[in-house]
Design brief:
Number of strands of chain B: 26
Shape of chain B: globular
Strand order of the largest sheet of chain A: 9-17-16-18-20-14-21-22
Oligomer: heterodimer
Low-confidence stretches of chain B: none
Radius of gyration of chain A: 25 Å
Strand content of chain A: 15-25%
Mean pLDDT of chain A: 91
Helix content of chain A: 25-40%
Number of strands of chain A: 22
Radius of gyration of chain B: 27 Å
Shape of chain A: elongated
Strand content of chain B: 15-25%
Chain lengths: 475, 588
Amino acid sequence: MSEATVLGGQEVVGVGRIEGPIMVVEGASNVSYDEVVEIQDVRGDTRRGRVLEVGEGFAVVQVFAGSTGLSIDGTRVRFLGNTLHMPVAEEMLGRIFDGLGTPIDGGPEPLTDVYRDVNGQPINPTARIYPRDYIQTGISTIDGVNTLLRGQKLPLFSGAGMPHDQLAAQIVRQATLGRVAGAPQTEGEEFAIVFAAMGVKNDVADYFRKSFTESGALTRVAMFLNLADDPPVERIVTPRAALTLAEYLAYDLGKHVLVVLTDMTNYGEALRQISNVRGEVPSRKGYPGYLYSDLASLYERTGRIRTSEGSITQIPILTMPNDDMTHPMPDLTGYITEGQIVLGRELYYAGVYPPVTVLPSLSRLMKDGIGKGRTRDDHPRWGAQLYAGYAKTQDIRALASVIGEEELSEVDQKYLKFGRAFEREFVNQAFTENRTIERTLEIGWKLLSMLPKGELTRVTLDEIKQYYKGDDASS
Amino acid sequence: MANEVGTITWISGPVVRARGSRHVGMLELVEVGQDRLVGEVIGLKGDQMTVQVYEETAGMQPGAPIYGTGLPLSVELGPGLIQSIYDGVQRPLPLIEQAMGSFINRGARFDSISREKKWKYTPKANVGDEVKGGTILGVAMETDTFEHRVMVHPDDKGTLTWVAPAGEYTVNDTIAKIKTGKEEKSVTMLQRWPVRRPRPFVQRRGANIPLITGQRILDTFFPVAKGGAAGIPGPFGSGKTVTQHSIAKWADAEVIVYIGCGERGNEMTEVLQEFPHLVDPRSGRPLMERTVLIANTSNMPVAAREASIYTGITIAEYYRDMGYHVALMADSTSRWAEALREVSGRLEEMPAEEGYPAYLAGRLAEFYERAGYVDNLNGSQGSVSIVGAVSPPGGDFSEPVTQHTKRFIRCFWALDKSLASARHFPAINWLDSYSEYIEDVGNWWREKTGKDWLAMRTKAMELLSEEARLSQIVKLVGPDALPYAERMVLETSRLIREGILQQNATDSVDAYSSVEKQIRLLELVLYFHERGMAIVKRGAPINLIHDLPVVDTIIRAKSSVTNEEINKLDDIQKMIDQQMGQLDAEYR
C-alpha cells in the first residue's frame, strides 16, 4: 500500500482516548468516513488503521495491529485521504501476503498501477449471470447430492478437530469444470486460487501450503495470512483483501477463481470484539446487529458477470462453536450462502472420510447445474431419491434402537442395509480418490437397487427400468 | 430545486447528523454531500437533524452540505413499472448497469420511469366529466395485453376541460386538463406518491376469494385470501425462496410485486432470467409481463433495504387502485427488520428485544395492514395480498420478528428443517401451519368446483394429525403392533404426504396444479381410504392394500396427469375400484 503512503495528508499529534483497538483522535479536520490512517508510535514504528466514525473535530479510529505501545501524547496520526486500497496484479498468484495484503514472502511489492478499494462494490443483479456450470470435485457427497457450481458460495460447516482442511484441500486439488456424463474429459483451464486465513494456526496455513505445493498448484495460489498470533483487528480486512484480488482476476482478467476463506468464526469474533469496544448495542450472543450485512458484503462478492468470462466461487470454512448450527455465525452464513456442506462428528468417529452429514447439507444451485445436458437426465430425481431413502433410514434406526433390528419389517431391514452401505460406499472415499460423475451416479444406483422398486417413488419408471439392478420382483 | 439546508457534523455508516434542522421536515428526502447521495430525515432535535443515507457513505466528511428537496421519499407511478427491476429506492438497475457497468457506484440518479418511451393511450373520460381522485382517465397499453389504467391523483378533483385524443404519449405529455375552481391543472400519466403513506381507498371488504397459487399444500390446506396476509417463516435451506418464487410464478394475481430485500444477488438474477421465459398459465403471456421486481440484495446499502418494502407496497397499491389483484412477495422481512435494528443501533436508541427497536411491532403492523381487498376510489375493486418470508435466527420461531409477524398475519406457513432434509418440498409443516381464511373461502370452492372442499380438507387434516399421533406409537413399538385400521390411516397419510403435499417446483407438470386437479387428487386419496378401510375392517391384511399397484399410480398422478387431462384421474379411480374390488370379494 505504498501508494497511499505517498499521498500524505494532514497529521495530528496526540490522541484523545485509547481503548482496546479503538482510539479517538481529536483536532483533525477534513477527515472522511472510512478513511485510512497511518499511526506512528513514540519509537517511530508505524501501523495502520481506519476511521469508523467521524464528527466535527474528532474521529474514531480502529487500529489494525492493536493499540499496544501507543500513548496519548506521543502518537502521531496521519490521515491518508482515501479509503483502504490495495494493489492487484496477476503476478500476485504464487505469492504470500499478510492480512492487509503486504508481501511477507520476502519478495517485492507487486508491480502494478491498478489499485482497488478493498471494500469492493455491490454487483448489480442485472449484470450477473446465473451460475449453471457445475464443478466436478470428484467427491460423491458434493458432485452427486450437493453439486457445486461456478459462481456459487458454498461453505463447509465443521467443528473443531474435524477434517475440513483436508476436504477443502481435496476440493481445490480435484476441481475441474464439469461435463456431461459419458462425454470425454476435455483439458480445462485450471482454477486460480485465492486463499485467506483468518486467525488459524500456523499448522493449518502450512498444511494448505504443502498441499498446494504437492499438487503443483502453488504458482496459481495467492495466500493472505492472518494467523492466530496476528492482530485480530486485521482479520476484518483479510477476506476483503483476498476478494479484491479475486475480483480483479475474475472480472478483469477473465479467470475462474476459487476462494477459500478459513476460518470465518474467527472473523466473526474479531468483528464482535470491535463492536464491543465501541459500546454498540449487541444482538445475539454479543455479535453486532450488522453481522448479517457485514457477512453478506463478503459472501456476495461471488458469482459471474456478463462482461467477463471469469467467475468467483467461494468455499468459506467455518467451525461451529460447540458444533451448534444455530450459533449466529453458521446461522447467518447459511442465510446468505447458496447452501452448506455439513461435517458431522458421528460419521467422523465412525471413520468415514469425508464425514459429510448429507441430510442437513444442501446446494441451492444444484438444480440448475445438473440433469439433462449437464450431468445426466436422471440426476435430480436420483439425488432426491437417495436423500429420501437416507432420511427414512434415520427414522428406522431410531425405531430399531427401541424395538430391536429383528422386529423390523423386511422392507425396513433393507433400509438399514441401504443406510449402512450409503455411508460406507457413497459418503466414504479416499482422500486421493477422484470420482467421475458417472462413477458417483453408478454407486448411487447400486445402493438404490438394495431397496424394493415400490419404495422408489422419486425416480421415474423408465429410470428404474434402465438403472435399477435389484432382484426385487414386486410392482 | 434542491437548496442547501445544512452541514454534516457526524458520520457513522448509513447514519449522518447535520446542523440545519429548521429547514427540513421529518421524513423529507434530502441529498447528502457533494455526491448528492439520497437520504431521508429520520430525526430532528434542536438544531440537529439525523439522516439515513441510502448509499455508501465512505469518503464523506463533516462540513459537507445537505440539500433539502421539500418532498418526502416518494415513488414514481405510471406506465413502465411492469417488467422493471429497481433497487430499494426505485432506481432502475438496468440503467445503472448501462451507465456504471457491472458494479453499483454511488450517486446514480435516474428517472424511475422512462420519460422518452411512448405508450399507446386511449382516453376513457370526456370533457365536462366531473372527476375525483382515482377516476380513470384513459388506458395505456403497458404490455401488449396489460391495460394500465391512468387515474386522477388521489389529491386532485374537478372538471375535465380537455382530453387528449387517442395516440402515443410519453409520461410527460399532458393527457388531460382538470379545472378546480379557477385553477386549471395539466395531468400526465406520471404521478408521485410518498412511500410511507398508504394510498387511500373507500372501504375494506371481506376477504373470501382465495389467492390460487397452484401449490397444493397452500390452496387445498392453508389458503390465503386475496387481500390477505401470510407469513412463511423458516430456517435457512427450508425453501422460503423457492416457495416465494413458486407463488410469484403461479399465483392468480394480475400483478406481482417481488421484493428481494436483503437476499442473494443470484436469486434476483434467477428471477430476471427465468420469468421472461415462463408462461402465465392464465394469460398465456410471459410471467415477466405482470411482474415488478425490487432488488436490494444483502450487500447493497442497508438503509435502502429498509425503504424497499415501502417502495414495493406503494407500487402494489397503485395497481390495486386500478382494480387489479396484486400479490406482493417480500423476501425477507427479517432482513428488513434487521435494517431497522442497524439504523436504530447507530442512533443509540434503547433496544427492546434482541437489539430490535421497540417500534418493530408497530412497523410490521403498518406494513401488513396495507394488504386488503378494497373498494377503490373509482368504484372498482382490487386487492393487495402480502406474502412475507421470515428468517428466524437458528430457525427459532420464538424470536421477535416471527412472533410479532404472527400477530398481523392470518395465514402461517411454517417451514420445517426436517422435512427439507428429507427433501419433502414444499417443506411446510402441516401440523404447525394454520390459515384463518379457511371458513371464508369455503363457499368459493363449492361454487368453483361443486365439491365440498371444506369437508374433504377437514378429513385429510384429521388423517394427518392421527398419523402424527400414531407415529409416536410406532416409534416405540413398531408398526406391526398397530391394528389394521390404524395402519390404514398410515397408508392413506403417506398418500396424502407423497401424492398431494409434496410438490416438485422443477417438474413441468407438477409445478402448477389447477384447482380442479387439486380437489380431484384429494378426492381420489380419500376414496382410496374409504374403500381400504372397509376392507381392512373385515380382516384383510394391510400389506395387501400396501402392495396394490394403484398406490404407486396415485402417488405419481401429480406429475403424470396434466392439468388439461384430469379426466385421467377417473381412470385411476376405476383402478382403485377394480383392485379394491378383488380384495373386497376375497374378504367378504
